[in-house]
Write a structure and sequence with these properties.
The protein has 152 residues and is α+β, with helices and mostly antiparallel strands. It is 13% helix and 30% strand. It is built from two helices and seven strands, in the order αβββββββα.
Length: 152
């Protein structure tokens, strides 16, 4: 007898790729660069609350950072300038290495923009409220037992 994970329940249809995505996101992190994720309240009535991702990218210029959105995956990559050969470090505590940080976004999330200031890259996201739609599905009769019941 095989054991089903919670995402393999017969009541969860169409979520087969979600477990693979969760595994990929969990394994793909080495801790650099450090980041924060915060929930920001709506700025004015009628606006949605936002989510803000802040990455500490000291030493990177805007042209050395790439922010892309492919389907529901937000990827932030940094490629530092090549090191000069004439620099000799007595202590090197500031990491300036290549990085890639990926975030899996829920369906409908939108990226509002990205800004780099004082060594922090800020990416703002919003999820517009989905419109609730209840759709009634028509039932058609296919077998003779239903037709007999209709005639009576």
């Amino acid at each position: 007898m095989s054991r089903l994970t919670s995402l393999q329940s017969p009541f969860l249809l169409g979520f087969d790729g979600l477990e693979r995505a969760l595994d990929r996101v969990a394994k793909g992190s080495d801790g650099y660069p450090p980041y924060n994720i915060e929930r920001l309240p709506a700025a004015a009535e009628g606006e949605q609350e936002r989510i803000r991702i802040t990455l500490a990218v000291a030493g990177f210029r805007p042209e050395q950072i790439e922010v892309t959105l492919d389907k529901n995956e937000l990827v932030i990559r940094g490629l530092p300038a090549s090191e000069r050969d004439d620099r000799v470090f007595l202590h090197r505590g500031i990491a300036a290495r290549q990085f890639a940080r990926a975030f899996l976004l829920a369906e409908g999330m939108e990226v509002l923009g990205a800004e780099l200031a004082t060594g922090l890259l800020v990416v703002d996201l919003v999820r517009p409220e989905p419109k609730r739609l209840v759709k009634r599905i028509a039932i058609t009769a296919r077998d003779d037992s239903c037709r007999i019941a209709e005639k009576e």
